[in-house]
Each structure stands twice: as C-alpha cells, then as structure tokens.
Design brief:
InterPro entries: YHS_dom. Keywords: Signal. It holds the Pfam family YHS. This protein has a two-stranded antiparallel sheet. It folds into two domains: about 70 residues, no CATH class; about 70 residues, no CATH class. Helix content is about 45%, strand content about 15%. With about 160 residues, it is an alpha+beta fold.
C-alpha cells in the first residue's frame, strides 16, 4: 500500500514537473499557449518604434515564453540578446508592479526608456505612469524581486 502511494505520488510529481517545464515561468506574462506580448514583436518596439504584430513563422523562446517576430532578422536579434528586447517585469504592467501587482498589458500601451521596453495595462494607466516614469521605474525595480514568483491572484490577497 505504501509502495503504491509512493509510486502514485512520484508519478504525479513527475507529471507536474514536466508540465511546469513547458509552461512559461511564473515571472513571465504569457497566455495559456505561452505566447508573450499577445504575439507582438518585441524587437519592433526598438527598430520601428511601433508595436508590430509578429508571425508564428518567426519564433523564439525566452524564459519558457514564446515570442513572435515580424521578420527573421528581428528573431535573430532577439535570440542574440533576449534580455535586451524582452519587456521589463516579465511583460507585466510596469505601473501595476509599483502597486505590487502583476497585471496583463496592452501591447499598444508601451514605452522604451533607457533602452528597455515597458508595457502598461492600457493607455489610461499609461497616462498615470508617464507622469513620473523615473520614479515608477525605480519603485517597480525595487518591488519586482518581491512579487515576481507569485501569481497575481496570490498578490491580490496580500
């Protein structure tokens, strides 16, 4: 009986661990299919200065999240330096992080500041964020290490 329990428990843990390796890391904002930034090309924010929808033809993975790109060149730039192009705070709302939360984002509510990509929940929230970008970035940088390993559902209860 104990042997059967241990075998069942071991199997359950193995299944859980293998599922976890396929899912985006908890500190990454990705949909149920592990797609980051709703399929927008993170490199285009830097090269085109505009949100640009990517294609499933050009993909790369970073922290178990899948990114789409509008071109092979953008995909290759990302692969060479993913931390340079990936959005800050795992793609969660930069303003939300200052409030200790991990909100989804609108890929069209964005800003590149000092060579880093920041996304916001929506354009209304972005209006608040741009009132003190340096202060909010400092606050979010201080807050992120504390909240990045928790789901927003958990953070909601704090």
């Amino acid at each position: 009986m104990i042997k059967q329990f241990l075998m069942t428990t071991t199997a359950a843990v193995a299944i859980t661990l293998s599922a976890a390796t396929l899912a985006a890391d908890i500190d990454m904002n990705a949909n149920a299919n592990d797609l980051a930034i709703q399929g927008y090309d993170p490199v285009a924010y830097f090269t085109k200065a505009a949100p640009t929808k990517g294609s499933s033809e050009y993909t790369a993975t970073y922290k178990n999240a899948i990114y789409h790109f509008s071109s092979e060149k953008n995909r290759d730039l990302f692969r060479a330096e993913p931390a340079k192009y990936a959005p800050q705070f795992g793609g969660f709302c930069a303003y939300g992080v200052t409030k200790g939360r991990k909100f989804d984002t609108d890929p069209t509510a964005w800003r590149v500041v000092d060579g880093k990509l920041y996304l916001n929940l929506n354009k209304d929230v972005q209006k608040l964020w741009v009132e003190d970008i340096p202060g909010y970035i400092t606050n979010a940088n201080d807050t992120w290490p504390t909240i990045k390993t928790f789901s927003d559902k958990t953070l909601e209860t704090f």
